[in-house]
Amino acid sequence: MERTEILISGFGGQGVVRLGQIFSIAAVAEGLFTTMLVSHGTETRGGYVRSQVVIDSSPIDSPVVEDPDYFCAMSKSAYSKFGSLVRKGTILYDPGYIVPDLSLLASQISISARDIAIEQLGQDIFANIVYLGVLGQYFKAYISREKLLEALTAKVPRAMGAKNVRAFELGYSLALSSMEDSF
Amino acid sequence: MERTEILISGFGGQGVVRLGQIFSIAAVAEGLFTTMLVSHGTETRGGYVRSQVVIDSSPIDSPVVEDPDYFCAMSKSAYSKFGSLVRKGTILYDPGYIVPDLSLLASQISISARDIAIEQLGQDIFANIVYLGVLGQYFKAYISREKLLEALTAKVPRAMGAKNVRAFELGYSLALSSMEDSF
Amino acid sequence: MKRLFDTGNAAITEGAILAGCKVFAGYPITPATEIAENMSRRLPHENGFYVQAEDELAALHICIGASLGGLKAMTATSGPGYILYADPYGWALGSEIPVVVLNAQRVGPVSGITGAPGQGEFYLSRYPTHGGNFESIVLAPNSVQEAFSLTVEAFYLAERFRMPITILADQIVTDGWESLLVPETEDEIKQMGLRIATRKINQGPEFYPATDEIDVPPVVLGHNTGAACSDWTPTSDGYDTEEVIWQHKHAYRLIYKVRNHQDILPHYEEIALDDNPDVILVAYGSPSRVVKSAVRAAREQGLKVGAIRLITLWPFPDKAFERSVKYLSVELNFDGQLVREVQRAMPKGSEVHFLGRCGELPKVTELVEAARTLINNQPLESIQWQREAW
Amino acid sequence: MKRLFDTGNAAITEGAILAGCKVFAGYPITPATEIAENMSRRLPHENGFYVQAEDELAALHICIGASLGGLKAMTATSGPGYILYADPYGWALGSEIPVVVLNAQRVGPVSGITGAPGQGEFYLSRYPTHGGNFESIVLAPNSVQEAFSLTVEAFYLAERFRMPITILADQIVTDGWESLLVPETEDEIKQMGLRIATRKINQGPEFYPATDEIDVPPVVLGHNTGAACSDWTPTSDGYDTEEVIWQHKHAYRLIYKVRNHQDILPHYEEIALDDNPDVILVAYGSPSRVVKSAVRAAREQGLKVGAIRLITLWPFPDKAFERSVKYLSVELNFDGQLVREVQRAMPKGSEVHFLGRCGELPKVTELVEAARTLINNQPLESIQWQREAW
Amino acid sequence: MDYLARKYLRGRKIPSSACSGCGLGQVHKKVLMAIDQIGLTTGDVVWGTGIGCSGRQTFNTWNGDNFAGTHGRVYAIATGLRLALPPSKKIILTVGDGDAFGIGLLHLLHAARRNVDMTVIVADNFGFQSTGGQYGLTTPDGSVTDSSPYGMRDPNWVQDGRDILDIVKGAGAGFLARHTSIEGQNAVESIKQAIRFKGFSLVHIIYPCVTNYFSKALGTRDPEVACRWLTERTNPKTEIEGLTIKTGIYPVTDGNRLEFSEQMQQITQAVQREKSNGAN
Amino acid sequence: MDYLARKYLRGRKIPSSACSGCGLGQVHKKVLMAIDQIGLTTGDVVWGTGIGCSGRQTFNTWNGDNFAGTHGRVYAIATGLRLALPPSKKIILTVGDGDAFGIGLLHLLHAARRNVDMTVIVADNFGFQSTGGQYGLTTPDGSVTDSSPYGMRDPNWVQDGRDILDIVKGAGAGFLARHTSIEGQNAVESIKQAIRFKGFSLVHIIYPCVTNYFSKALGTRDPEVACRWLTERTNPKTEIEGLTIKTGIYPVTDGNRLEFSEQMQQITQAVQREKSNGAN
Amino acid sequence: MANEAENNRRFKVELDEQACKACKYCLAACPRGVFVQADYFNEKGYRPVRVKAPDDCIGCKRCFFLCPDFAIDVEAATGEDANEKTV
Amino acid sequence: MANEAENNRRFKVELDEQACKACKYCLAACPRGVFVQADYFNEKGYRPVRVKAPDDCIGCKRCFFLCPDFAIDVEAATGEDANEKTV
Ligand SMILES: Cc1ncc(C[n+]2csc(CCOP(=O)(O)OP(=O)(O)O)c2C)c(N)n1
Ligand SMILES: Cc1ncc(C[n+]2csc(CCOP(=O)(O)OP(=O)(O)O)c2C)c(N)n1
Ligand code: SF4
Ligand code: SF4
Ligand code: SF4
Ligand code: SF4
Ligand code: SF4
Ligand code: SF4
Ligand SMILES: [Mg+2]
Ligand SMILES: [Mg+2]
What we know:
heterooctamer; A: 6 helices; E: alpha/beta; 7 strands; globular; binds thiamine diphosphate; binds iron/sulfur cluster; binds magnesium ion
């Protein structure tokens, strides 16, 4: 597997870090080298949160995502701040927060994670796990569904286990219609 | 006047610094450049105290006394610590504390300041001002008796003024019999 | 061997515990707080103690007191706390007491930016306290795995040199997540080249010998050895003295026990230097990861570029800079600190340049362009900003 | 003009009062205590205040608070107190508040020797706090007269650069007694080249402009200008921000307001350099007095020796070291600090050597012999003691 | 923005970046109500803050002059500022519990000893919250926090017979009071008395941190649950296990000491009088 | 040397380099008498000191293990040492008034809060004497010293209704007492109780500094004059102007708190017990 | 903002919906049920509380005291400033 | 040191004259005038106090309590250690 960069960003409390963490744990379990950088605005909640994940079959030098293959854009400010960074990759934006800027180079796919979470699971906090499922689809060749679910159940409170798995499945089976290129 | 170095040392409370200070104030009053370094053992009383005075008609570079022209040795430990430093100069030792080591290069003159102070003034604390008088004799050509007395009275408590002047006169008039060379 | 995905802070905690750390005293500060949190959870299981101190000054003094009683101890902070370590750090240097100090550098000065990386304490880690007359040992990890291994190494060196050892990390290394291998058996520990030293006790009567030898057991109180250690210049049996000759011997020992044993300290890493490159990038900590990517990217574009990655920052490895070449120091500060030591150590006829960023890592593209600019003998862009007035 | 015979500490007090110092907050420590004592006696007569703080950290913060309210302020300490200034020193750097800080260096590390001279804080005075991204201004007097004039100059520079200025003295300068001339009239002040700046008040709205210009009035609170200053990176109107772009501007200003105005800082002194001597002694502070005597003594013995005496230590005057020659750095420490900057700044083909003493000044004879040894291309004796094991 | 914010605060940081449900704003508002009811203007007050959530959310909200000190040091800066400001100018400091009762306690006690005219508002959220929620000096015994996963056992300043206000009173503070952020006008009245007091005054106000403290200690971020927990323990009629909060004015022995900057002026005047009539 | 010195002290620093007439030795001797009368040996006590006259004169006189901390920090070092030493080992600290009540007060109060088993002997000579005699936190109001040439007006910790022992008591100290160095066996009895007490104990002992304090404040270095001054003001029957010294045991509210290192051990054992019976 | 037209009320309750962080202190504290949480999101992504029944307000100012974000004004409708009169 | 021969005394007072710093606490405190200041100097340059009238000692131990330099021992002459019995 070549060096692949994933950028995930939104506002505090959306589980941006949790999403990157679960995905990475699954990658490590598959024997891949993985790095994740987390940065946020101010010390308190509410600022922007960004996590940069790099996955590679050989040791990773720079952990900085400079040319993301995938960008999970989960809030308006994240999209406007990092959208232009994506050149060859794909922006997976949540229409619940973002009106896409078509002048951007990257191909863009709408992932209505927040609405799916609210409609199917009653709370928007599961949107990040819907995204997990979507990423799972893109990386099917390298990271198995089992390893993703294993990592997911290990990381979420037991009481919320079922709803999280449900959210994952919804993302994993989401029709990515306007997806131009697929692995 | 050439660069002239005076070393004064004894134990805490003997007025080693006061002696150097009064002598220097008189020298400055005569328009001479003067430096004085003070160093002592530990922070508390009782350690050795040393003052190094340099006098010159032009600005002084090194304030360190490396080859004293005069060494007022006022205690046993001071004499044993610094006696060997004096080569071309004269050691003025107080026999009340010191048995002179004749193997030393320097010419040595006994100044029984402590005994004079006790016998004539009832207290050994005036020994340092007897030494002031002795130094006054050696520097007659450069520092007047008036400037020395002026500096003395300005620096000692008024109540002790008379006794201090008396101690100075005793030193100033002391027969320095074994004085080989004189200014 | 355990395969984990965790942060530098977690790796540091596991490394310390593997090395035998029994006391962690600290004070919360971003980005080092997680070490304290991990320790408060893990140490009780290892018969160890987590102490939350009233401030950083007390935190390092509490660690030193524990070490003085025979327990291995560690503290961790960032810039604003590191300067409050100066007093205890000096005490541990002078009394030769083993302790490990971690500084997760963030953007300064003052509170600067709390959650972003900086490298503003390069010189302060050499002179973390007043007075001079001592040498310092400072190790700089650039990954989660190395944060683990250098923490184990720091405890090892602290015992052998009986002195404080600084781990100079930055926010990317402590907060960053990476795959991490943790040994579970003695063999695995050896395989990973990890070194662990057990605490010996100085039985006296000579507690402060005027020698440059290491492996002199530290003073440990409570074993009735009649040991004495203080903030004053010590005689060989530990009395306080104001004599210059004892101070001279004390300085000789504090300086040369380190300078005469640099061979056992971790060595710097050379990257693509075999073909005498035109430009050598110099870095430590997280920027060195981007530097490695930049060397590969530059080589792909036909630029003869290499790199030197420092691991032991102090004593500064002069012998790494024997080549006469253009050096480019890449640092997370704007005033340029590492660059001055490269300029001092490099042979005459070479050039030194500086690329400073702060609060974010430089981009691979930026470093490749900088190398190209130098190869073409043009001035670096970063120097222009001096004339820019916003 | 008054002709006095007094100590460096007395001269510093008079210089501060002449410059308009109204608040001295300090904590007792040898050898700086006498400044506090003089201030407690003199300031009430000048409508000023002496405050004895609970520790050095509070002392410099109290000075900064007074300056923040519009009063010129100063504090003084030695090594063990200077490290406790790191937190407030950083605050004054970041908030650009004028204040004068004196460090009377004594022998270290830790409590070392209290009443003897050292020069262990050369690098610490450049990096007195964490975080980097700033330049420092450090002045080093070598006599009682210069302690007086550089204290006046420090207050002047503090106002124009609106930042803390460090006077790096040593125990010989502060405790030494010398003849001292003190001006009594405006003309005499001008004759002696003394510069005094009055305190201006920043009316906003731009309190932190991203410019390298000096003479930007400092923030003063209590005049209802709506001013804001903090420990965080400031926007131009003083808000706290975590944005990297503002941090970049803040760093640019803290570095380049100093680097781009070095011309108004006191220049180094050159001694007997006209005939391109074989050896140049380099020193600051009290050792430089012995160096001057040694140059004359060496010349008398036919040795072509000169000297460079630094007055502004930081920013380090690289241009003083443009000659290709053998340099010998004479310092009051054993680890060698000034020597590293000479090695960094000197041109190719020159050599640098180090002669370290501590707790006492070197002898003139020792320096002359060292110069002779270097002229004869032999190794310096001081390097041998590394191998000596007592 | 309400009328208080429009009258006294700068728009840019209102509403603050505090979490939803954070009680800090309630503390902030009570201080502004006290200032408003005394009739002070922005020019009458220099506002200082510590760091952390309390510092970050109140710094540069005041439309007059203001400053933020480093952790625990604002009391020393204010002491120096006091010497330079005219006595009429008020100094009001909003700080955190860690700032005042942890790292800054030495400077706070010495400011009280010197009776420096300042009003310290300690916004107590039961620990170091801006660094992620570690226990502090007022965290209720047994609480689970990020740095006490097995329940906090470190003796605090507010239980087991200890009361930090006792210590501050012993240092010489002239006016002390304790309230919670969810109390009403009675808390505002205490703050008014503190601001009016000519010397060192301190008001300890406990407010709910829902994101860190209450979410870990009570397992919920719901502000209502936090309010109920606080109300139950404030001046409880019945015996209740764990922390109880007695609010109101905390009696001090003698409130009319000479103020610090006045005492300093008196020394200067006495010395100059003595010199002028040639006494020495 | 007398029998106490022969039994417990090292010859090299006895007699100390203290000035003639300095009362520090009297404090030092009372501590040794207490140790002797309890029946402790040099192996039972680790002795720590501050710096200054009190530190310099007592450091490395104890023939067992001993250490000297930097100014004001020995309480923090002792806290760490407490974790490593067996509970039976006593920690005794001899420190100065500036060390304990000035720069070191934050660490001292937090050591008391944690109830760390140590005995702090504060040797109070009314100021910073080793640095030449500046006024300190216990210097009597109005005293002329090197840093108060016009008479000290800075409020201290021991007059005007303030008592530093009140503050230390508020912090949680388990045993407190005050004596002067010229008192007799009653002072030794208090020190014995302090050493026996399992937790934080402090004995404040005032002694005459003849060289700096009394020479400037009373114009004489004569120890007898200093003794008379102290005796007049110790437990005075009649009203007397200025500082008075009430000696004896200073009542604390509750003396039987869990000791710091015991509490730490309990956490470790509780956590390991819970883990072993698979609770989490 | 609340509707200006209803001027026969004794108290005017205004709630700044963009400043609101949906903490619902006001909602829980109001004895008259004047508030309700909206179903739309404000700029910051919170579903703000809005004034549902302004007429029922009795001017107790509990909401004003408890709102951490300076988002609620309660004034006596008759123009004379109700804020001075304390509860 | 005090003369060993006088063994019919109830208390033995020993004074280490080299350790003495002539502070005269003992001299002032002794109710029986047992001490006097010598006219010679000891090594350190002090004129030490010496035991003038050992017989008059009543073992009150005031001198022992007040001597800052561990220079005085007061023991019951009958060998049984007087120090245990406190004043
Ligand atoms: C010397 C120093 N140590 C640590 C920190 C890190 N720090 C930043 S905010 C904070 C929390 C302070 O707690 P508190 O004063 O209670 O404020 P809160 O965040 O709880 O409102 C800390 C410890 C710092 N800024 N400076
Ligand atoms: C951080 C620091 N500040 C100042 C000093 C200087 N200093 C040395 S001894 C001393 C006096 C301390 O007074 P106290 O504790 O009362 O001891 P004393 O000398 O009076 O016995 C001081 C301030 C120091 N050693 N360290
Ligand atoms: S972390 Fe707690 S105290 Fe800080 S802003 Fe959030 S709720 Fe308020
Ligand atoms: S200065 Fe005072 S306290 Fe210090 S040794 Fe001398 S008499 Fe004792
Ligand atoms: S003032 Fe009282 S009744 Fe009116 S809206 Fe607010 S809480 Fe409800
Ligand atoms: S109290 Fe204020 S911030 Fe909270 S829901 Fe009500 S209006 Fe919104
Ligand atoms: S024990 Fe009492 S009577 Fe005997 S010498 Fe001592 S003071 Fe005098
Ligand atoms: S009390 Fe002790 S030191 Fe003082 S005079 Fe008597 S024997 Fe000598
Ligand atoms: Mg808090
Ligand atoms: Mg003292």
